[in-house]
């Protein structure tokens, strides 16, 4: 095997298509679900970045990968690594261990591309107090239930969060016959009134409110909500959907000892999607939770070049890259490793913890030395990233400390 | 013979009595076995080193540890004998260790040992700074509390015990017309007559006692909240890290679980006797636990929390169990099984059988039958699991079809649970039988598929 791609979402499928058509040799994609497409499978209705909806896009990406000659295997989970390089197996990634109905395997490839996507943090990780009844979901679970299994999840629901994914939750709930009691959005986010038509009517939005507890035994009976004035009320409902609060699915990377970026929580990568582990690349939302599907696919296509270079012996794996760190209110930067001498990133994508009022001016420094000051052109927030052009990367001192990006 | 309550204690009693040619029914108000305190504890098989010497609890915990260790090996309940370290963080705690060692000795545990800070940090390299030393208690073990209750209940059912779930005992009257009294039980599912009655209703033993006319004690729930950290935390800790109890109170423990995660807790909050269902977590509780956890194992709190839960200990204002026989009425109350009932369950069951014999129940040793064997599905990380078992998958590919990816639970295991003699009726019930939904994503990836399987089985 030349390249093993783990995960058949848009990033993995596009990577496989790009690699197979560029002549990377034997390219195989593993997908633990029964069908390819990743999150696209259940993003049935159109949305930002998905003008025609997800499933058609997934089919198109799958066909492109297969036509290019990549092999796709569904129902196979990558569970860990064997023969990691530091156990003496030499250069290149270790073997990937898999489980599937056909049995256990150890797949050795010359390069591995991790494209395992992202997920929402559930109620437990958010430490929302209260009882532990049924009826507590994330948007991912809700959409799968409604779109893939035709389930109706409850009678009356509260949606937590105000980002784009909350809109999808509202739509899916209403379409499957569940009343939306309220959308509880801690961050004041815009656009809800404008999109009311597309969501099947006005949305009862509680801005600046937050969920302080769940009640109910067996089944959820209500959600306690604190308003901006500190007053609390209990909203009766049998379902609550926690939306957003994305984290990369980095389990396989972590088992492989791949260094994670403290900002994204996903594998740290350079402009060529190279992780800290020789021969291991990463693309898509496992790098940055969460970007839109076309951007995940674009990363998949873009990884083909660096992987081919590596397969053709294009120089040693970068050692000692300079990390890129962000300071609050910035949340992450990608790529977050800079390799002196290697191709510089055209731009670094930035994300913030909360919506930042424009204009946002960021400063890039290394060991106190100012490398760049830049006014970002697009708005920046928890659900939107902005591009910082990479013209300053040449000035990074390869022997210096981390590059730090901060809002001025 | 009727046992009220199918927690770990009631199920163990039913199993013990099932060796004898008796007609036995177990009633539980809940929809599944083990839905009370038995599903929400710290999952430790205690040695009883710190029990109050001379109490019934001290004896039954010591005996229970031995019995359950053997039973677990026989039935496939995962147990990991990792041992405990009582970590001293200040001079007062350090000074308290020798007395604890002496208490352990009084309880028959002679293998405890004081270790200094150097050895402590060698054995627990991720421990936070400032620990001064520890008392090592070999034998303290991790156990799966869910599998334990299920093993007892399945074995009892296989031996012919009738299990009535969704069946709350609501009234008791006595029929004195025949030879000796007969209890007429009024339950939410109808009437039942029995000559012998065991009250193993956990937090509600006082209320069931009232139905019988006894007012010996009141159960005051003592809530314990706990946090479960994701599998990546497991490598941070090797032993059960226990707090040293001092006059100023008791801290919290950090312990691995057999499911490959790490527990932090429990809190100890005295509630009102009326708050027997107050199993919610609170913001203050979890915040305080995280604070305490950050001191014990700083890296722990950076990991993802996969569950927050709370259990209620059945405190009765006495530092011991309250197991009482009422010979004239042919009933036994098994109350005050506070924070050691999982460990002591098999010994409690034997003790209760003895008490029943004293009240006249015929437990002829000559008529004892061997219990039908049980082998439980393994939920423990330290033992082979189906997703990693090539031979099993070759024999049945359903064991290679992973449904819950975080916990690596396969279609074969879910199918087996749904087809078992004690099938789950809720996602929580399936979780306790398979670990499905117990992971970091909490159903983001597999919740819908699991619900479809459960609903399919219900049809
Ligand atoms: C609820 C929701 C709403 C969204 N709405 C929009 C929208 O409106 N517009 C938009 O553009 N984008 C939207 N997105 C984001 C979009 O879906 C993602 O950007 C895109 O799917 C990311 O692609 P990916 O390939 O990185 O990851 P994913 O699509 O998540 O694919 C990752 C794949 O890897 C597989 N995998 C993971 N681990 C393993 C393993 N160990 N072994 C084998 N396989 C593995 C997974 O099963 C999955 O199929 C939404 C996402 C969600 C979840
Ligand atoms: C936070 C915490 C940590 C603990 N840690 C440990 C530990 O590490 N090790 C250990 O050994 N022990 C531990 N324990 C103690 C252990 O969990 C309990 O002692 C044990 O579970 C008690 O079992 P039980 O069967 O008596 O009660 P329960 O499990 O509560 O069962 C009682 C059952 O009776 C039923 N019932 C009640 N009333 C009626 C009625 N009227 N009719 C029908 N059914 C009724 C209930 O539905 C319930 O299922 C801990 C407890 C807590 C709370």
Apparent shape of chain B: globular
Oligomer: heterodimer
> Largest protein interface?
A-B, 41 and 45 residues
The portion of residues forming beta strands of chain B comes to 15-25%
What small molecules does this complex bind?
flavin-adenine dinucleotide
The number of distinct helices of chain A, counting runs of at least 4 residues, comes to 6
Structural category of chain B is alpha+beta
The gross shape of chain A turns out to be globular
Number of strands of chain A: 26
Order of strands across the biggest sheet of chain B? 9-2-1-13-21-20
Strand content of chain A: 25-35%
Number of strands of chain B: 23
- What are the segments of chain B in which pLDDT stays under 50 over at least 5 consecutive residues? none
State the distance separating the first and last CA atoms of chain A.
48 Å
Low-confidence stretches of chain A: none
Helical fraction of chain B equals 25-40%
């Amino acid at each position: 095997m030349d390249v093993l791609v783990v995960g058949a979402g848009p990033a993995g499928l596009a990577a496989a298509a790009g690699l197979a058509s560029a002549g990377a040799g034997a390219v195989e994609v593993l997908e633990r679900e029964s069908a390819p497409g990743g999150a696209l499978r259940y993003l049935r209705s159109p949305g930002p970045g998905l003008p025609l909806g997800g499933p058609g896009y997934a089919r198109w990406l799958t066909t492109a990968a297969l036509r290019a000659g990549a092999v796709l295997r569904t129902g196979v989970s990558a569970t860990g690594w064997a023969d990691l390089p530091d156990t003496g197996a030499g250069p290149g990634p270790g073997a990937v261990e898999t489980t599937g109905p056909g049995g256990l395997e150890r797949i050795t490839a010359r390069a591995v591309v991790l494209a395992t996507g992202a997920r929402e943090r559930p109620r437990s990780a958010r430490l929302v107090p209260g009882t532990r009844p049924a009826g507590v979901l994330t948007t991912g679970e809700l959409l799968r239930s409604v779109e893939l299994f035709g389930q109706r999840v409850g009678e009356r629901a509260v949606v937590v969060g105000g980002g784009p994914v909350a809109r999808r939750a509202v739509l899916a709930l209403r379409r499957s016959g569940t009343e939306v009691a309220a959308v509880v959005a801690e961050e004041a986010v815009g656009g809800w009134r404008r999109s009311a038509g597309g969501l099947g009517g006005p949305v009862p939005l509680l801005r600046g409110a937050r969920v302080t507890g769940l009640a109910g035994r067996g089944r959820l009976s209500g959600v306690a909500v604190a308003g901006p004035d500190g007053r609390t009320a209990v909203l009766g409902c049998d379902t609550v959907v926690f939306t957003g609060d994305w984290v990369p699915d980095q389990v396989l990377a972590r088992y492989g000892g791949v260094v994670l970026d403290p900002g994204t929580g996903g594998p740290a990568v350079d402009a060529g999607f190279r992780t800290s582990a020789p021969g291991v690349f990463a693309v898509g939302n496992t790098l940055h939770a969460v970007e839109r599907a076309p951007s995940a696919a674009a990363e998949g296509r873009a990884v083909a070049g660096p992987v081919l270079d590596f397969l053709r012996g294009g120089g040693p794996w970068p050692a000692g890259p300079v990390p890129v760190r962000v300071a609050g209110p910035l949340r992450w930067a990608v790529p977050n490793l800079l390799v002196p001498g290697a191709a510089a990133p055209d731009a670094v994508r930035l994300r913030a913890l909360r919506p930042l009022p424009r204009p946002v001016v960021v400063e890039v420094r290394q060991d106190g030395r100012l490398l760049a000051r830049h006014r970002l052109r697009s708005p920046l927030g928890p659900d939107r990233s902005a591009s910082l052009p990479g013209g300053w990367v040449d000035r990074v001192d390869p022997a210096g400390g981390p590059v730090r990006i901060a809002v001025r | 013979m009727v046992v009220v309550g199918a927690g770990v204690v009631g199920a163990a009693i039913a199993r013990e009595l099932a060796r004898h040619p008796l007609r036995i029914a177990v009633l539980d108000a809940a929809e599944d076995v083990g839905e009370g305190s038995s599903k929400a504890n710290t999952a430790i098989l205690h040695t009883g080193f710190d029990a109050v010497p001379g109490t019934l609890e001290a004896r039954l915990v010591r005996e229970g540890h031995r019995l359950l260790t053997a039973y677990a090996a026989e039935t496939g309940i995962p147990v990991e004998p990792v041992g405990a370290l009582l970590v001293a963080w200040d001079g007062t705690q350090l000074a308290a260790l020798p007395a604890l060692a002496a208490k352990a000795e009084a309880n028959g545990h002679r293998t405890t040992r004081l270790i200094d800070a150097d050895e402590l940090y060698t054995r627990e390299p991720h421990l936070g700074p400032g620990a001064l030393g520890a008392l090592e208690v070999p034998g303290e073990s991790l156990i799966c509390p869910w599998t334990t209750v299920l093993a007892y209940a399945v074995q009892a059912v296989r031996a012919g015990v009738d299990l009535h779930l969704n069946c709350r005992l609501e009234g008791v009257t006595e029929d004195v017309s025949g030879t000796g009294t007969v209890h007429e039980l009024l339950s939410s599912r109808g009437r039942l007559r029995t000559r012998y009655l065991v009250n193993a209703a956990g937090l509600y033993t006082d209320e069931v006692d009232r139905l019988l006319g006894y007012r010996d004690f009141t159960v005051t729930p003592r809530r314990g909240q706990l946090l479960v950290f994701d599998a990546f935390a497991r490598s941070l800790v090797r032993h059960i890290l226990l707090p040293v109890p001092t006059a100023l109170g008791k801290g919290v423990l950090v312990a691995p679980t057999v499911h490959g995660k790490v527990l932090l807790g429990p809190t100890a909050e005295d509630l009102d006797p009326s708050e027997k269902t107050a199993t919610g977590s609170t913001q203050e509780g979890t915040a305080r636990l995280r604070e305490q956890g950050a001191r014990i194992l700083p890296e722990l709190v950076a990991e993802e929390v996969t569950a927050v839960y709370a259990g209620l200990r059945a405190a009765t204002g006495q530092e011991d169990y309250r197991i009482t026989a009422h010979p004239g009425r042919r009933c036994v109350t098994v109350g005050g099984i506070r924070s050691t009932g999982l460990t002591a369950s098999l010994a409690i069951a034997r003790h209760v059988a003895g008490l029943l014999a004293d009240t006249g129940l015929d437990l002829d040793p000559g008529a004892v039958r061997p219990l039908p064997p049980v082998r439980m599905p393994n939920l423990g990380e330290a033992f082979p699991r189906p997703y990693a078992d090539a031979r099993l998958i070759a024999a049945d590919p359903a064991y290679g079809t992973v449904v819950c990816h975080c916990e690596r639970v396969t279609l074969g295991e879910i199918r087996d649970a749904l087809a078992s003699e004690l099938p789950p009726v809720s996602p929580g019930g399936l979780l306790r039988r398979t670990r499905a939904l117990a992971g970091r994503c909490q159903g983001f990836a597999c919740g819908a598929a699991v619900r479809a399987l459960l609903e399919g089985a219900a049809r």
